[in-house]
Write a structure and sequence with these properties.
Shape: globular
Largest sheet: 5 strands, mixed
Order of helices and strands: HEEEHHEE
Strand content: 15-25%
Structural class: alpha+beta
Oligomer: single chain
Number of strands: 5
Distance between the termini: 26 Å
Radius of gyration: 14 Å
Length: 126
Amino acid sequence: MEEVFTEHTSPVLEKLHEDFGTIHPFLLKLSKELRDERISKYPIYIAQMQSVDLGRPIPIFEQLTLHYHYNASFLEEFVKKDIIPMAKVNIFREAYKHPEKYACFFMVTPLEAGFIYIPYRESEVE
C-alpha cells in the first residue's frame, strides 16, 4: 500500500512527524501491549484533524499539546468497519511494516486519508 498523500499535504505530514517526536515512546509501548495481549498483530494509530468514529482515544495524549487527535485501533476493526475490505486483508498484511520498528498511522484529513509508516528510533526498538 502506498502513501496517498500528495506534495500538497506535506505540511500535514510535517505536523505528524512533529507529533511523533513527542508520542513515539507511548506508541511503541502500546504496540507491544496490543501484540503481547494478542489483541492484534496489526496496531494502527488514527491521526485526525477532527474526531472520527474509529478506534479509541489515547488518554495520555489529551494532556499533550499536539497538532492532531490520535486514536488506537487495529486491522480487525478496519475490516469490521469495511475500511479495509476482506478481499484486501492479505494485501494489507503483506504491506504492513514490522510493528516493533514502525508505527502505522491512518492519517485522516478533510481531503484524503491513507496509511503512513514512521520508523521508531533504533535505540528504542527491542
